[in-house]
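Q: Nitric oxide synthase-interacting protein homolog, please. Structure only.
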Amino acid sequence: KKDAANSGFGTTSRRIGKDSVKSFDCCSLTLQPCRNPVITKDGYLFDKEAILTYIISKKNEYSRKMKEYEKQVKQDEEEETAKANAEQQKKLDRFISTEKNIVSNKAVIPSGPDRLDFYGHTFTLYSVPILVEKPSTSGAISNVSLGKRKELPSFWVPSQTPAAKVSRIEKPDSRIYCPVSNKPLKAKDLIEVKFTLVKDPSDRKSLIAKENRYMCAVTHDILNNSVPCAVLKPTGDVVTIECIEQIIKKDMIHPLTNEKLSESDIIPLQR
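A: Structure for Nitric oxide synthase-interacting protein homolog:
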């Protein structure tokens, strides 16, 4: 910077060239002159084919993401069902193991017959067996006996190695957003635009090669990037902002069709 200042030339700022600026009549997606121009409610110009292709691709992407989300929801339901069944089976296994421990830890203490003489009659008495619970030999119930083997992963068996969980998929948004303004966009909201060609019999250049291609539909002023423009929604005609301020806003009547206009019918063209 010091050398540049001393030499008198070579600054860090640079002006953007003409080729780097999108022309006012070019599509915001293809950056080429529109064959069938349409405009959004926010004033962004698109080629009809390009913006409809974009909308269809976004709808297909939403359908794909929705199928993945529904698959994830179905897997979650199956996992919940399997978890509930496993919990029920675990309770059943615990109950069966407890019952087995009670039966195996009980022993019968036999009691021999006893005789009783009563007024010359002899009676034989048999005692009822007594169930005495023996203390358990093991201090705690083994995890393996309660079916814990399936819960404990094994790092050396391929089928039981722990795996990283897949990231969760959020429910996709069904709305489609404008690629420029990022606002909700619908195909039915697109408004067809009608440019007025410059009539010059002596100019035999092609439409793309012409520098002055279009003019205001009312005042016939030449349109370019330095002239602010707007679109009249009922007919799609492109006029200059100066025409709107000086002519149209006086009576709010369309100059070409004598139709009553409102503020929402005037859409400024974004440059």
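A: Brief note, in case it's useful. The radius of gyration is 43 Å.
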